[in-house]
Every structure is written in C-alpha cells, then in structure tokens.
Design brief:
- It is a single chain.
- The protein contains twelve helices and 14 strands.
- With about 375 residues, the protein is α/β, with parallel strands linked by helices.
- A seven-stranded mixed beta sheet has the order 1-9-8-5-4-2-3, with helices on both faces. A four-stranded antiparallel beta sheet has the order 10-12-14-13.
- α1 runs antiparallel to α8 and α3 runs parallel beside α4.
- The relative contact order is 0.17.
C-alpha cells in the first residue's frame, strides 16, 4: 500500500515563531554589526554544556580546522580518527599537512575505542579524534586513559552529538577541545554554523584570533598571525539562540522516536546501533544494520517507493581516493557501511508518521525473502 501522505523526509528543520522573532530582532538593531547575538548564543551554549567559554564559527569543518591548528598538528604528525565518520573529520587533519590514521570501530556501538586505537599509535601520533557517531557517545573514559598514558591530545568531534551525555555529563567536556555543528540537518541548526569549546585558556585565545583573520580582541585591525574568516553571522546566531532553547525538547522527542522504532521493529532481522555503557544518546540519526547490502538497498527502495526517505550510513573514509593508501583493516566499519541504514529521525516526526514507517518496514519483511 502506497503512502498517500506527504513525503516523510530523513530530516527537516523544526522552526516556529521563535526563530522568526529572533531574526527580526537581530535585523532591526541599529548596530547590526555588533556581536550581541553571537555573544548571547556563545553564553547560552557554554551554560548548556557546562564550560566557561564557547567560540562560535561558520561551520563544523571550520571548528575542526581551527582545533587542529591550535593543537599544533602539522606535517609529519599522525592523528587517529575512526574509519566510520563523515569525511570532514579526516579532512581537517589533512588541511594541516598531517596524516589521518583510520581505526576500526566496535561492531555493536559503531564507536572507536581503546582496543581499536592503541595498535595504531606510533612515535608520530599526536592526537586522537573521538567522533560521537550519529549522536551516540564514544567510550570516553578508556580513550582518556589511553591518551594520557601515551601523552596524546584528545579531541571530541561532537558534530552529531549535541545533548549526548557520558557518565552523566555532556559530551565535549572530556577532552582538550571539542567541536559541534549546526548544519541544517543537525539537532539544532543555524543553517550553517559550528562551535568550539576547550579546557585550555591559551587555546581559547588562539582560536578566537584565528577565526577572525588573526586579530586579538584587545587591538582592532592589528594582526598577529595568518588567520581565517571563520566567523559566524549574527543572523545565524539569532536562529541558534531560539533553537538552543528547544534542545531538551528536541532530544526527548528523538529518544522517544528511537524507542518507538525499537519497540515496533523488535522482532525483525535488524540490529540498531547500541549505546556504550554509562551514556545516553541524543539520537541524531537513528540507525540500524540489515543482514546484507542487498537487503539494505531493497528496503531503502521499498521505503522510497512509499515516499519515505532513508539514508545509507557513512562509507569508511579510506574508500575515498584521497585516503585510499590507508592500510589498516577495518572489517567492522566495512560491514556496518555495507548494511547500515538511517531512518527518519527529526524531532517534528509525528506518531502517525512513525506508524507509517514501521508498518512499511514490517510489510517489506513480510513480502521479501531475506
């Protein structure tokens, strides 16, 4: 039976009058180029995460690049990243001239842990980037201990994990620095946008300079280094302020959606991405594996025929030509990439829409030999 309702998208922005009012207020200010909204967004974000300072930037990739530069990553260094991540994680390492080293992931949680990272550490290793894939937390405690034991920097890539907790605390505060993304499909969005947080005061000062052409805060139009124009706009920050106020509501709804999927699909031959112990996912994308690539692709097409979007999970980064010289095997990441599928996960998804999706998946398995 075809879905006669409107298309059900993988992800949609969830806006109401609050975002419109915030932008209108921003646009109406006499001093439009003052950083009123940016300062307010940064302060609100710091309060939500539990850190002294946050640095708003143009997007998550900028945030990663600034963090790599400030960490002193340079040509000749190696940085260990998970194979199963969005390509921006590895690209930020490459921007500096360093080499990304790709670690496999746990087949249940899809996360990179100490067991996957430690065999890859060499005398050239400078840092580990822990990516909280799809809003699920990495096993941070073991990665922290590993980094300390080998005198490595630990960076958290929280682009997909705003609101995720580990050991009762927000992810992002367990490392030397962390980055977040506010791209249009993230849990909260500013259209494009990102944030950097760090525990180091000197890193904070350096990132603030770097994002604005190398200019210090206390001396206008004086430049102390080669910097970048990685600043967030006031309009983006205004949207972010309104979105941030809804974060807890969004995450509660997304977790509820995850629970409904797992309940309704529990007797089918699918396996949902698991959480690491002592963590609570923000459920950015609710994802699962099927028995094979052909079944995954057939299910995705079956859903699309019913106007329901889904998406294959990320490919291992070393499959891309610029990283194809990576030699360490990643069988778990390869398997997840071949069989993994993400379902509609945005907070505005209604219960009737979830019923349509789960009924369609149940019908697929009833009709399709697997």
């Amino acid at each position: 039976m075809m879905n006669t309702h409107l298309p059900i998208y993988l992800y949609e922005q969830f806006f109401d009058q609050a975002e419109t009012d915030a932008v209108a207020l921003c646009m109406s200010r006499e001093r439009f180029n003052d950083n009123i909204e940016i300062n307010e967004f940064q302060a609100g974000f710091s309060q939500k995460i539990g850190v002294p300072h946050s640095i708003a930037v143009a997007n998550g990739s900028c945030a990663l690049h600034l963090t790599m530069l400030t960490a002193g990553i340079t040509a000749g260094d190696e940085v260990i990243v998970p194979s199963l991540t969005f390509v921006a994680t590895a690209n930020a390492v490459s921007y500096t001239g360093a080499q990304a080293i790709f670690a496999d992931v746990n087949p249940d949680t899809w996360q990179m842990g100490a067991a996957e990272v430690e065999p890859l550490i060499t005398s050239r290793t400078k840092a580990i980037i822990a990516v909280h894939l799809y809003g699920h937390a990495c096993p941070l405690r073991e990665l922290q201990e590993l980094a300390e034991r080998h005198h490595l920097l630990l960076i958290e890539d929280c682009a997909e994990a705003l609101g995720t907790t580990y050991a009762g605390e927000q992810v992002g505060i367990h490392a030397d620095a962390a980055i977040f993304s506010f791209y249009k499909n993230k849990t909260i969005t500013t259209g494009e946008g990102g944030m950097v947080i760090t525990r180091h005061a000197n890193w904070h000062e350096h990132i603030v300079k770097l994002k604005s052409h190398g200019m210090p805060l206390d001396r206008r139009f004086w430049y102390e280094m080669v910097g970048y124009n990685y600043r967030m706009t006031n309009v983006s920050a205004a949207i972010g302020i309104a979105q941030l106020a809804k974060l807890d509501q969004f995450i509660a709804r997304k977790r509820n959606i995850r629970d409904q999927y797992q309940k309704e699909l529990r007797n089918l031959p699918i396996v949902f991405q698991a959480e690491v112990p002592d963590s609570a996912s923000a459920c950015w994308l609710i994802s699962m594996t099927l028995s094979s690539e052909s079944v995954r692709d057939a299910l995705a097409q079956f859903l699309l025929d019913r106007q329901i979007q889904s998406r294959p999970v990320f490919l291992p980064v070393q499959r891309f030509p610029m990283y194809a010289d990576a030699t360490w095997p990643t069988p778990a990441a390869d398997r997840i990439a071949e069989c993994g599928l993400s379902l509609p996960s945005w907070p505005g998804l209604s219960d009737p829409q979830i019923d349509i999706i789960t009924n369609a998946i149940q019908l697929f398995f009833a009709e399709t030999p697997t």
